Amino acid sequence: MPAPPAAPLAQVVPLTPVDGVYTYRVPSEMDAEAVPGARVVVPFGRRTLTGVVVERFGDDDLDPETTPKLKPLYDVLDGRPAVPADLLALTKWVADYTLCTWGEALKAALPSGTGVESRRVVHGLAPPDAWDEPRGRKVLRALQEKNGAGLPVAQVAGVLGRKTVPQNLLRRLEAAGAVRLDDEVQEARARAKTARHLRLATPPAGGNSRTVRGARQTALLEHLAGVGEGGAVQAEAFAATGATSSTVKSLEARGLVEAFDAEVERRADGLDGPAPEAAPPVDLHPAQEAATDAIAGAIQAGRGGTFLLHGVTGSGKTEVYLRTLRAALDKGKTAIVLVPEIALTPQTVRRFRAPFGDAVAVLHSRMSPGERLDAWTRIRDGRYPIVIGPRSAVFAPLDNLGVIVVDEEHEASYKQFDPAPRYHARDVAVMRAHRAGAVCVLGSATPSLESVANANAGKYTRLEMPDRVPVRGPDGTTHAPAPLPPVRVIDLGREKQVRRLKGALSHDLRLAIEARLGRGEQTILLQNRRGYAPVVTCEDCGWTPTCTDCAVSLTVHRDRYGKLSDQLRCHYCGLTERLQPACPECGERDLRLLGQGTQRVEEEIAEVFPEARVLRMDLDTTSRKGAHRKILDRFGRGDADILLGTQMVAKGLDFPRVTLVGVVDADTGMLLPDFRASERTFQLLAQVAGRAGRHELQGEVLLQTRNPDHAAIRFALAHDFHGFAHVEMAERLALGYPPYGRLVGVEVKGPEQRSTEALAERWGVALGQEAQKVAGVEVLGPAPALVGRVKKWWRYHLLVKAPRTLPPSVLAAVVRAVRDRVGAPGGHRVNLDVDPVGLY
């Protein structure tokens, strides 16, 4: 009797930081669904994990003895592939380029909370007093409090106040019969949501309209007749008609109405209402028209390519984006629009929904897992051809991609820091568009020097929009273009010398705010530091409270009632401590609060301008869902005179009555030991300056600084991007830094300083040995990181530097060789960051 055909095989990438592709048998009943791109549940050692099928093949090339030993797939999670073929290839490129595993890259492209995996759980079998060792008793006591529910092994470390799990202790407890270790499968946290729906019975099983009794029954039937065969959500039908459950039961009994459960979409904040009314069409400025023709022409002709849209603030880049998307949709294509901040999402969504209505979807991390799953599923199914969101939206599962817009492409927030993959969304967007034959538009008033260099080299097509566009007044009339606002620099050092500086706001800035308040105009103030006071110090002995887990001082925060909180906060790990009334070192009560955060500036505004209505926009006020939109809506309606915030108020905002922008401290971040510090400062100042005078009212910008001669200040004063770029790029060329060099950052982390430093030294030696094999490669470090300890982890940095002419794959090979040889043993971690945007 002939042997049955061998089971087909699948190569699967687990969604975990383990490198490699693993082969599994595909049961016959899963054959049709376990296709490349499908998510599957697989056994992986002692665990159960979610993975993605990346290839299917037969077993002809395998040893006949090998195939029967292969484990089978447990399940297929998707009826259709979760990861389209183009995203499979793109995530492989991301993994190779950023030196992470393919599983980590795939996980970044999928909605969070949808995977199935197992976790190791420990159950207590003995009372705490049955064990002599204190640590064991502590673990058994914690298990006893769980009442048999079990404790995830990963949480045992927290019970003991350790960073790593005490595996040796658990093994001894298990061998003695004091605990039991199990693998428990955890279901996905995010699932489709269903709700009760109603529809007209078709055909009616009995009864007719004459049998309807009462206004509620009539209203419900008329409502259902108007919504079509898909029916209506029962709760919404009740709200619209006044019907109740008894109304439905009565109509069901007569066969006029059917009740059923169906999926409902959970929509993100800002998408749950009707689309805004479309604005009247505008005539394009010549520079806008030229840019639109170039980009739309490439889309219509099916030519891929990358365009650098360099337009000053207020030059109408958004209108070019809208026309570009229209060209893509008219061609039957789809589009992605990336924004650097979640804070910009509400305004951007409103602007894009006006012409495109419900064709727009949103993806960002502040959405609930359910909202994100629903949006992602419908994007994959072709329901939404336009996707808007921060960096992770670059992986939106769109078919037939036509254009990717990266607004404010220079922003560092497009870079993913933790966890891996440490990708830059701008670079992924360029690569995804290239692979799809689509167009990528990089827009900015202050482009990154990397993009400028690519445009200079002819890799990108440069489109200049050097002037602001004519503005439309409230009555619909068109006015001449608003000029770029004049910028004044206020030297805080001199202000202090002449004794005119009484707080965070200089005399001139106070007068400028007062003038706007008198005219009913609005002001935006940038203070890129949150909290009340960054530093507390004792005047007598110099004591300063620092975080016990991080090498930083603690920041004073005020409570919402306007009093000084009795807590200090660490902005790195979130640790809080009481603010003591006296110095714990010397007992003196002469504690000084140094520096100004947004809360302290807000307090000063309230004292100087008690009649002013102030909105503060920082991480503390925007942590709740929808907070960004509510703050900006209030300011846009004129419910506030002053918008004070961190850098989130510097980008993309457009309010007609804002005529003053004040930068409270332009030096924040300027003097950091990072070669990009000057570039970031200039970009931030130029961007926030562009918020003033964008419409018919004249604007003004005041920059407060102690370094008025710094290049970033001098060129921001003249709105001179090209002058700044020329000087800065000359320095980069001399030093061999990007865009004229390649960098790979190596961060070595560990629970103890000595062992972490030793591991960093081993990496430094090994990298130096590998670098000698490749001309031009240089290794800098190791050295302690600027913040040497974060969340109890000691940190050391190394930098691998190479000329731009060296192919990325060669530099990657140097780092991979050391990773394979030295690794990260003994509870330590080594994070690799290709093309880092920050060196601290």
Taking strands numbered 1, 2, ... along the chain, how are they ordered across the largest sheet? 14-15-13-16-17-12-18
Low-pLDDT residue intervals, each spanning 5 or more residues: 1-6
| Chain oligomer state | single chain
Overall, the morphology is globular
User: Hey, roughly how much beta strand do the residues contain?
Assistant: 15-25%
Supply Rg: 30 Å
Distance between the termini: 69 Å
Mean pLDDT: 88
Q: From the helix content, strand content and strand pairing, which structural class follows? A: alpha/beta
How much helix, percentage-wise, in residues?
A: 25-40%
Report the total helices. Answer: 23
How many extended strands? Answer: 35
The largest pleated sheet is described as: 7 strands, parallel
Description:
By secondary structure, the protein is of the alpha/beta class. Helix content is 31%, strand content 23%. It is built from 23 helices and 35 strands. Strands 14-15-13-16-17-12-18 form a 7-stranded parallel sheet, sandwiched between helices. Helix 1 (85-98) crosses helix 13. It is globular, with a radius of gyration of 30 Å. It starts with 8 loop residues before the first strand and ends in a 6-residue tail after the last strand.
List the helices and strands and how they pair.
Blueprint: E1 9-14, E2 22-25, E3 39-44, E4 47-57, E5 75-76, H1 85-98, H2 102-108, E6 117-124, H3 134-145, E7 151-152, H4 153-159, H5 167-175, E8 179-186, E9 193-200, H6 215-227, E10 232-233, H7 234-241, H8 245-253, E11 257-264, H9 286-301, E12 305-311, H10 317-330, E13 334-338, H11 345-356, E14 360-362, H12 369-380, E15 386-389, E16 401-407, H13 425-436, E17 439-444, H14 449-456, E18 461-465, E19 471-472, E20 478-479, E21 487-491, H15 492-497, H16 507-519, E22 522-526, E23 535-538, E24 555-558, E25 564-569, E26 576-578, E27 591-594, H17 598-608, E28 614-617, H18 627-636, E29 642-645, E30 658-663, H19 677-689, E31 700-705, H20 711-717, H21 721-735, E32 741-750, H22 753-771, E33 778-790, E34 793-803, H23 808-821, E35 829-834
Parallel strand pairs: 12-17, 12-18, 13-15, 13-16, 14-15, 16-17, 21-31, 22-29, 22-30, 28-29, 30-31
Antiparallel strand pairs: 1-2, 1-4, 3-4, 3-5, 6-7, 6-8, 9-10, 9-11, 19-20, 23-27, 24-25, 25-26, 32-34, 32-35, 33-34
Helix pairs in contact: 1-2, 1-13, 6-7, 9-10, 19-20, 19-21, 22-23
